[in-house]
Design goal:
The complex is a heterodimer. Chain A has 15 helices and 14 strands. Chain A is α/β, with parallel strands linked by helices. In chain A, helix 4 packs parallel to helix 5 and helix 9 packs across helix 11. Chain B has one domain: Aldolase class I (TIM Barrel), CATH 3.20.20. Chain B is α/β, with parallel strands linked by helices. The longest helix of chain B has 16 residues. In chain B, 54% of the residues are buried. Chain B has a 9-stranded parallel β-sheet with strand order 5-4-3-2-1-9-8-7-6. Chain B has 12 helices and 9 strands. Classes of the chains: A alpha/beta, B alpha/beta. Chains A and B meet through helix 1, helix 8 and strand 11 of A and helix 3, helix 5 and strand 6 of B.
Amino acid sequence: MNGRFGKFGGQYVPETLMNALTDLEEEFEKAMSDKSFMDEYRYYLKEYSGRPTPLYFAENLTKALGGAKIYLKREDLNHTGAHKINNVIGQVLLAKRMGKKRIIAETGAGQHGVATATVAAKFGLECEIFMGREDIQRQSLNVFKMKLLGANVRSVESGTGTLKDAINEAIRDWVTNVDTTFYVMGSVVGPHPYPTIVRDFQRVIGDETKAQILEKEGRYPDYVVACVGGGSNSMGIFFPFIEEKEVSLIGVEAGGKGIESGKHAATFQGGSIGVIHGMMTYVLQDDEGQILPVYSISAGLDYPGVGPEHAYLKESGRAKYVYATDEESVEAFMMLSKLEGIIPALESAHAIAYAAKIAPSMEKDKIIVVNLSGRGDKDIDIMSKIMRVEL
Amino acid sequence: MNRIKKKFDLLKSHNEKALITFITAGDPDIKTTADMIFAMENGGADIVEIGIPYSDPLADGPVIQNSSARSLKKGTKIKDIMNCVKDVRSKSDIPLAFLAYYNSIFKYGIERFISESLMAGIDGFIIPDLPIEEREELSLKLRGTDISLIPLVAPTSKERIKRIVEIADTFVYCVSLNGVTGMRERISTDLKTYMETVKQFTPLPRALGFGISNPSIVKDVKDLCEGVVVGSAIVDLISKSRDDQKVKEFVKEMKGALLDENKG
């Protein structure tokens, strides 16, 4: 298996992990070509998570914007409320196959942590979730859920106390417990083979979307739009469309308080090539390679790097990367709630915001598919504060 | 000849083992770093590792993480560290190695980092996140210079050891345990088998590091290697006292444990 996407990717990790990564790669390759493994994976996607998720024509939103037709890929309807579980089911089955009894994971918004705690509970595995101190505060509902599911939530105090530090700490734990522990990486990031593993367990989003849009419209969409933090939901929906050259792929990063303010997490705006979490990719860093603090209203996008395959898609020009600010995303959050009765995750609201920006000036027969990667229940606290409503 | 190599040759001729000590550059400040290097040298350190502070040191435990964070908060830049090395080099011939995460070197510019290190008088690089699969570019660029790329092996390396030590030309850094840097009460790895395996693949000295934080551990492991690396214990001491006499005393005590021939 090739560990690189062009010049991006690789394995910049301590030597202690190298044999574990090789074992993981070998086992993953075997599993993917093992029919009984794939049958089991698909069984749990269907019966446990509720797939396939609908591709829903957002008629009211389309009318209100007055341009292109907008479809929503309803990943929010998965069990645990986001796309994260697609990948977790795959990796936990892999962990079981490798005989690991303990799993660890990092989480930002808490969606990956909840999905991991959920599947660990289902399969009776010991589960430890690393979460930044800041994120624990802003996503308390998810912290409670993880504990309820029997996971141990470890507060990460180091660095900026957000997602990147949670990944650092999970890697440190893995280095320490490498013989017994399986690291369930939550996004298309980290050392090879993780970006490939996560992509292959998330591509079900794009595979379904392709079939669904053909059935509904008889053709592929003009645009596929998805938010990008590390980039797993976007890679999942993009990947099967890469070969369909007529489909424009658009990743929407977190513009925070605006790029000029410096308070954002839009890695492709102002980032440069470097190494983070074991991979070579675009990183928000200073002249000496120190990783810069990033900011976004959505904890799930608050990440200074980006998956190496996204870096490759950007450099090759196959995908385009833009951003939406906090303000635009909050507006999109409220718009979708009111028009369609769907409360999106603030992460996904970034993708909605960008679609809402381009749709009005497009012809009515054009089609945009937005990946609605998660639901917004977890963001109710933040939103009520923004809207100045006491709960 | 490379100063690290020369030092190991000299120690070998005296039937002695190397004490390699670590310090984070710029913690508490860059001036103190130079003072502490001299204190360690006076205490008996044979080689000093200078840590380039990094925002995301994923091979390090809390002691060195916090030390790096303090240094960066103080505004330590690579230029300051190079100047500090120059200053030390003008007064001492002690072998010096940089401990740097790869992104520090990559982002700074590999050639630029190498040439400035050479000018400053650095003798080796230790890069904890650059396994065989990723080291070729740096390794080629170091070839023919007097800087040694010091490879790390780990207890999990097994069949990888042979390839890891291929490029070694001064010594091999043997990580003592599965985990990150930091002080330990004891080391529970089966070190004997591990260190013998490493020896099968290289005639070069083997330095054992990670968790070696007190004289009793040094006494336990010294017969299994040709040197030990002491990091977090020194960084912790500096963060608590800033007293170079105390650092010198501690280094002296560790060196004493390393020299101690008869008592276990």
